[in-house]
Specification:
This protein is α+β, with helices and mostly antiparallel strands and about 375 residues long. The protein contains 11 helices and 10 strands. Helix 9 packs antiparallel against helix 10. The model has no long low-confidence stretch (mean pLDDT about 95).
Length: about 375
């Protein structure tokens, strides 16, 4: 684990106790069973805003506290442990980064303070198919004078049902597959021609499918320059991926702790099953993988904070490693618990379902293996 400052250590303790007491897995289960269309509990989200976590990476001049990405990663890890559902990742990190990086002064002054105090949710609307492919954007933005007209769809938009505005990646030139010709627009959810439909997913979160039917936007809706949106998009996605990796680490770490507790208490043949050598070896291997994953995740967050040149590589490495460990750990969580692990009454299934959704979000393991190799020159 990275050496934390006194402030970060206190924040970790605060996040740990708050998530355990105010937003535990039992609360997520209750939200799931209620059929909540937003995919998160509004009082929980308001509390996260009141504690200032939504402004951790937002500059102070726009209502944030600018404490850095490692600090936000600490919070996300603790929320991941309890499967706490909130738009913190999508709005307070990914969308906020896009606005800080490429937004106009007017956009920053309007939206960043609202993101920072959790009175507005903004999210990225990128993918249009079943897999993450940010260069395969086909949604068209046609320029006419000082306005643009957006037509197309976006799929699997995180917090799409709750969002007040979307940062939409559109194609202003070139063909799908080309990294150039992508432009970002800030589109309010109430804009004429915007439609959204809830997607029901295994992890019971608030995803949506969006449609844009000739949505007219003024040039002031542009984030950055025409055809130059990909660079801003990649920065926002990498920050989001590193934060998501931290959340995945928390989900996996809690899965490990649940498994370890079971190994220490479940008795078979007159002794605890953790004393069986084969199970002890499996636990030791999983612990080693967890610590390797932690090193990758923290290195990515620190690379972002220090402005390191290899930040994209580190973010892809973190997302890949977190995905690999979480996939294996969530399987072991079910398997070692045996029959009880298969029941809905036990929490293991909730962790497995959330794990599969996290693995696919913003690039699966195959996507990031390929991206890491490409960035490294292979």
């Amino acid at each position: 684990m990275a050496a934390l400052s006194e402030e970060q250590s206190l924040l970790k303790e605060q996040a740990q106790s708050w998530a355990r007491d105010a937003a535990p897995v039992a609360r997520f289960r209750k939200m799931r069973d209620s059929g909540n269309e937003l995919g998160f509990d509004q009082p929980t989200w308001s509390s996260i805003g009141e504690m200032g976590w939504t402004g951790i990476v937002i500059p102070e001049e726009f209502g944030g506290v600018a404490m850095g990405h490692l600090t936000l990663g600490i919070v996300l890890e603790e929320l991941g442990r309890q499967l706490t559902a909130s738009p913190l990742l999508a709005s307070g990190l990914a969308a906020a980064t896009a606005l800080v990086t490429g937004g106009s002064e007017a956009q920053k002054k309007t939206w960043l303070p609202k993101i920072a105090d959790a009175t507005a949710v903004v999210t990225l609307a990128i993918d249009e198919g079943p897999r993450h492919a940010p260069s395969s954007i086909a949604l068209v933005a046609e320029k006419s004078g000082d306005t643009f007209k957006l037509s197309g769809k976006k799929d699997h938009v995180l917090e799409g049902m709750a969002a007040d505005a979307y940062i939409v990646a559109a194609r202003t030139s070139g063909a799908p597959g080309a990294e150039s010709g992508i432009t970002l627009f800030l589109v309010e959810a109430t804009a004429r021609g915007v439609g959204r439909q809830r997607l029901k997913t295994a992890d019971s979160r608030g995803y949506a499918q969006l449609t844009f039917d000739g949505v007219e936007l003024p040039s002031s809706a542009l984030i950055g320059a025409v055809d130059q949106g990909n660079a801003i998009l990649q920065v926002a996605l990498d920050r989001g991926r590193a934060g998501l990796a931290a959340e995945m680490l928390g989900t996996a770490a809690q899965s490990f702790d649940m498994t370890l507790d079971y190994l220490k208490t479940r008795v078979q043949f007159g002794q605890v099953i953790g004393s069986f050598q084969a199970l002890g070896h499996r636990a030791a291997g999983l612990f080693t993988e967890m610590e390797m994953t932690r090193s990758c995740v923290e290195a990515a967050l620190q690379a972002i904070d220090s402005g390191a040149e290899d930040t994209p590589q580190m973010c892809s490495l973190a997302k890949y490693k977190a995905g690999e460990f979480l996939h294996n750990m969530s399987n072991e969580l079910i398997q070692i618990h045996g029959g009880i692990g298969m029941t809905d009454e036990f929490d293991a299934g909730l962790y497995l379902k959330r794990a599969r959704a996290q693995e696919a979000t913003w690039g699966n393991r195959a996507f990031h293996r390929d991206r890491y190799a490409t960035l490294m020159g292979f």
